[in-house]
Design brief:
The chain is an alpha+beta fold. Among the domains are: 9-207, no CATH class; 305-362, no CATH class. It has helices at 28-45, 67-93, 131-144, 171-182, 199-207, 229-239, 258-265, 288-300, 319-328, 352-362, 376-389, 410-415, 417-420, 448-451; strands at residues 14-15, 24-25, 53-54, 63-64, 117-118, 127-128, 148-149, 155-158, 167-168, 187-188, 195-196, 217-218, 225-226, 246-247, 254-255, 274-275, 284-285, 307-308, 315-316, 340-342, 348-350, 366-368, 442-447. A hairpin with a 6-residue loop joins strand 10 (187-188) and strand 11 (195-196). Helix 1 runs antiparallel to helix 2. The longest helix has 27 residues, at 67-93. It is elongated, with a radius of gyration of 31 Å. Pfam families: zf-C2H2_4. Its main location: nucleus.
């Protein structure tokens, strides 16, 4: 990054966003005086006492309970304008930072502050209704503090804020420490308006922003759409890869991750590995999962039926049994988990809005038929032939991950190319990967609205 240029207070560009005003201030004194005139005119127009006082700052819908609260609120807009300008200058000096993808509807949203700012420094009880002058006042305390001797003959500067015994090595460190008491912010994102207490947090916020066009990556083997390369890699590992490097020491079973292996190893326990400690209950189980299901079903829910199918109205005690019912009986499929919401009658049913969103993203509101089951040997033979005919290599290379058409992801592909050159499980590089071929049949006659009763 380019070295940061220090911005002088006299070099500010502060546009006034009060109603239709086009004034641009060059320093905080001039800008705050200009905004104060807007406030006086606005309050004089409403001489009678009102229930609410509307803020006329653009894109701000705040209503104050009284004139003093409105003055504090608008003064914070002035301070927020300076922070956004500082953020725009930092972004201009560091042109490699991506643009903020957050919506700008909250660009002028500021915290609701009803009381004036009170200085809690020792022997100082000054109250100020403008955050700019308040923070400058607290900074004056920091730079006027004197070094004091400690027990080990070292010198330090004590924080004299109320109920604080902190010490700092320098006045500059004391100034930064006082921000923890005053909640002072030093920079704001010019796009979304979020404020930060230091420049590092602002840079982290900027680096996390990714364009929406880069967030959609198609799986090369099915219609799954992922938001990043990590989730796409995980999807291919568990959906289309038959590699199982985690072996059980007690049998010939193998698994794709350690979590499934640990759950399987519990099946080799004695039948009394987990015993229910509720009085009068003699239930025992081999696995912890079975024991937890017993405890919830028998001792917590008391067998209460609280899940209902929105299509056939059949009731279930557990959400996973309802999920199996929806998939097998009604052929509902979704790459993400089924989400349920509580209805007015107290039953939990499928969240239709969430399901529609997932289907729209992955299937364009068309539901798949469940694929026919094939043997493992036939599946491997078919997968290898399909993979070779489509030109896919067994290693998960970044060139296989094709984004949506028109998405500018060439730059991002090169950044993650190194992490995707190796197979999913790099420990077994000599083991060829086999992939499940994507199902080709679609149930084009069953639309999403036909599933919902």
């Amino acid at each position: 990054m380019a070295p940061r240029k220090r911005i002088k207070p006299s070099e500010l560009v502060l546009p006034c966003e009060w109603s239709d005003c086009t004034f641009v201030g060059k320093c905080m004194e001039e800008f705050c005086d200009h905004v104060a005139r807007h406030l006086r005119e606005h309050l004089n127009d409403s001489q009678e006492k009102l229930e609410q006082y509307q803020c006329l700052w653009r894109s701000c819908e705040f209503c104050a309970a009284g004139p003093n609260e409105l003055i504090i609120h608008v003064n914070f807009h002035s301070y927020h304008t300076k922070l956004k300008y500082l953020g725009s200058q930092m972004r201009a000096y560091h042109q490699d930072l991506p643009e903020c993808s957050q919506r700008n509807h909250s660009q002028n949203m500021v915290p609701e502050i009803a009381d004036t700012f009170v200085c809690c420094w020792e022997h100082c009880d000054m109250t100020i209704n403008n955050p700019e002058w308040f923070y400058q006042h607290v900074t004056m305390h920091a730079y006027c503090a004197e070094n004091e001797s400690l027990l080990n003959n070292r010198k330090a500067i004590f924080c004299r804020w109320k109920d604080c015994d902190g010490t700092c090595k320098s006045r500059h460190k004391l100034r930064e420490h006082l921000r923890t008491h005053t909640q002072e912010k030093v920079v704001a994102c010019p796009s979304c308006g979020v404020m930060f207490s230091n420049n590092t947090k602002f840079f982290d916020h900027a680096k996390r922003q990714i364009s929406e066009d880069i967030r959609h990556l198609n799986c090369p083997f099915c219609d799954m759409v992922c938001t990043n390369f990590s989730s796409l890699k995980t999807h291919i590992r568990f959906r289309h890869c038959d590699e199982r490097p985690f072996l059980c020491d007690f049998c010939d079973s193998s698994f794709k991750n350690t979590y499934d292996l640990r759950k399987h190893i519990e099946t080799h326990n004695d039948s009394s590995a987990y015993c229910c400690d509720v009085n009068g209950c003699d239930f025992t189980a081999r696995t912890l999962q079975t024991f937890r299901q017993h405890y919830k079903r028998v001792h917590e829910s008391n067998g209460t039926i609280k899940y209902k199918c929105h299509i056939c109205q059949k009731c279930f005690s557990w959400c996973y049994t309802l999920t199996l019912h929806l998939r097998k009986m009604h052929q509902l499929t979704c790459h993400s988990r089924f989400r349920y919401k509580e209805d007015e009658d107290g039953y939990w049913t499928l969240n239709i809005d969430n399901f529609k969103t997932s289907m729209e993203l992955n299937y364009d509101f068309v539901c798949k038929k469940p694929p026919q089951k094939t043997s493992r040997r036939q599946n491997c033979t078919r997968n290898n032939s399909n993979a070779s005919s489509k030109g896919f290599s067994t290693g998960l290379h970044a060139s296989q991950f094709q984004p949506l058409s028109g998405s500018p992801v060439e730059k991002s592909m090169s950044e993650v190319d190194a992490s995707l050159k190796e197979p999913v499980y790099y420990e077994l590089q000599s083991v060829p990967l086999s992939f499940e071929s994507p199902p080709n049949d679609f149930n084009e006659t069953v639309a999403l609205n036909a599933m919902v009763k």
